Each structure stands twice: as C-alpha cells, then as structure tokens.
Amino acid sequence: MRMNNSFEEVFTLFQEHNHIAIAGHQNPDGDAIGACLALALALKKMGKEVTVLLEPYKEMYDVIPGKSFILPQDKYGDIDAEVFVALDCGDVMRMGDAISIFDKTAIRVNIDHHISNEFYGGFNIVDGDASSTCELLYRLLRDAVDLDRDIATALYAGILYDTGGFRHTSTSPATLNAAAELMTYDIPFNRIHNDFFERKSYQEMKIIGRAFQNASPLYNGKFLYSTITLSEMQEFGCTFQDVGAIISQLKSVKGTELACFLYEKEPNVVKVSLRCEDGYDVCKLASVFGGGGHQKAAGCTIFDTMEKALAMILKEVEQIME
Ligand SMILES: [Mn+2]
Predict the structure, then answer these.
(1) Residue 49: pLDDT above 70?
(2) Contact 106/7 with Cβ under 8 angstroms?
(3) Which of 314, 220, 206 has the alpha carbon at shortest distance from 260?
(4) Is residue 115 packed enough to be buried (19+ CB in 10 Å), middle (13-18) or exposed (0-12)?
(5) Residue 4, SS3 per DSSP
(6) Are the folds of 7-198 and 202-321 the same?
C-alpha cells in the first residue's frame, strides 16, 4: 500500500533506538551520499551509533562531510542495527550488497523521491515531487535537529546535485527555500558547484569524446543515443564512474528530446541511462527492463550483450517515437 508515514513517526524511531544503519544506492551520486552522510551526522549529534553503507565513490564528492561513517564492505557481516534507513533507493535492488543487512534488520525505513518507489519499507517517506532525497531529508530534520555547517553542506550538496545546479524542472520554490536556509550555515557552496559540475578529469573528457563519435541521431535528431563497450572503457583506462556525465551531455545536444546512453559494466551487463523532455516518460521505458527512476531521468540494467541490449532499447524507443 502506498501510504506515507509522518516525519514525527520516523523521527521517533530514531529517538527510540540506538544503532541505526543507513544505506544509499549503488554507484552513489551526490544526492545519495549527501543524504546518507547528513543523516549520519544528525544522528551522531543525537548520540546514536551510526553505520553508513555506501559503495566507494568518486573524489569529486569528498566535499561532503562525514565520510568516516562509511563502513568498508568486508565488514558488513558485523552490522547489528535496530533500524535500517534506505535513502534515495527507488527499489530494494538498488541497495546492492547492503540488501542483506536491510533484510535482517527489524525496522526498515524508506526515504526517497523516485516516482517508481514501491514503498518497500516498514516505514516510508516517499515524495516523487521532491527535487532530491536531501530536500526531503531537510524537511524531516530542520525542526527536529540542530542543523550545523556539516549537515547543511551535505544536504545542500545533494539538492544541488539532483537539480543539476537548480536547473532541472524538479526545482521548486520549496527547493530554493531549503537551499537558502542551508546557505545560512556558511557552507562552501561555490566549491560544491565547481567540484560537481565543472571539474572533469582528462579521461572523462576523452571518453565523452568517444561517446560522441559513437553517437547516432534518429527520428530527425529528436532521439540521440550512444554506447561505450567494455573494451573501449579499457582502451581509455576508464571505470564506470568516468562515464556518468555522458548522458547529460547527449541530452544537451540541441533538438534532442530523448537521449539514451548504454555502457557495458561487465560482460553481458549493460547499464542504460535515459533522459527526456516533457511529453515523454523514460521511467516507463526503463520499467520495461526492470528499471525505474523519474519521468525525465531513469535507468535500467539489461543482462545481455551490448548488441542485443541496444536492439531492445531501439525497439521500445520506436514505439514511443511513432
Ligand atoms: Mn536522488
């Protein structure tokens, strides 16, 4: 049943228990990291024992404080938490290895802003209209905890990341009010912006170049797609973290209404990212392959060869474009 709990109910859970585990999604982005570390910092301030489960992430996110809460993956077996909080995870599978801890924890909380979220927690706070999990978390924490510079930095970072620097249409007056309030804590907002959106490594730029060489426009340029194979990743010395910016670059091409980027993470594991303008729904498209996300930004994983994965995507896109 898609029913939300109140902020008070969830906050009471935090008050009444001591050890709280927090996880974000696989290949964590600014919102997942910001949300996990902001909540960890806030709970620590309340005197709680806190463990954060997050996969290793790119150095560009190191501006977000609280990294020391993250437990190495080989220590997950030691976790004995009373409450588990999943943040920014549209579905349970997005948690990756943390899923086993989620499954064995008695009290499970799901806080998220993905429209495809299935309310998989025992307690849920899901708002598909929120720009980011961090915006949602800000609303939960602002009246309950004494915010400080570190918590504010983490929350602001997540909001900034998921709105693409307050540019995506998910940005609302409430988003900017949250950001304005967080700015009063003397946060390094200029550095956050530069680290997230300006600085790219030479390798990332080169693989973006290859992605554009490989790109093909279809339907009079309304649809643009590209692929990067595993052997190309190896050729450029890239990891999957280096291809994260490609989808937004494809989408930014003038006239593109729908963009798709596929890369081979492992043999027969193809990650698909989708972006679109109003009038399309890529969340629906991704859900055909068991994925999800937002109306304008979504993704899925196809367990097949690149060739077959691409053919399947193009077939779905054909139906949308006609
Ligand atoms: Mn998010």
Answers:
(1) yes
(2) no
(3) 314
(4) middle
(5) coil
(6) no
Q: How far apart are the CA of 131 and the centre of ligand 1, in A?
A: 8
Domain 202-321 classification at class level = alpha beta
87, 32 Cβ separation under 8 angstroms = yes
With a cut of 90, say whether residue 1 has pLDDT above it: no
Average confidence (pLDDT) over 22-31: 96
CA of 31 to the centre of ligand 1 (A): 5
Residue 275 CA to residue 227 CA, distance in Å, equals: 15
Q: How far is the CA of 273 from the centre of ligand 1 (A)?
A: 14
Work out the average pLDDT over 88-106.
94
How far, in Å, is the centroid of ligand 1 from the Cα of 176?
16
Shortest CA distance to 264 belongs to which of 299, 218, 298, 303?
303
How far is CA 172 from its chain centroid?
19
Residue 215 is predicted with a pLDDT of: 98
Task: Kindly give, in sequence order, each residue whose CB lies less than 8 Å from that of residue 267, ignoring residues fewer than 6 positions away.
Answer: 230
Residues 262, 270 contacting (CB under 8 angstroms): yes
Range 108-113 average pLDDT: 98
Provide the token pair at 229.
């194979």
Task: Retrieve residue 252's tokens.
Answer: 């930014």
Work out the pLDDT band at 154, boundaries 50, 70, 90: very high
Please report, for the chain, the start and end positions of each structural domain, with discontinuous segments joined by +: 7-198, 202-321
Residue 14 has pLDDT above 70, yes or no: yes
pLDDT of residue 200: 86
Q: Please give the helix or strand (H or E) that residue 147 lies within, else none.
A: none
Architecture of domain 7-198: Alpha-Beta Complex (3.90)
* pLDDT score for 77: 85
Pairing of strands 49-53, 297-302: unpaired
21 Cα–ligand 1 center, Å:
19
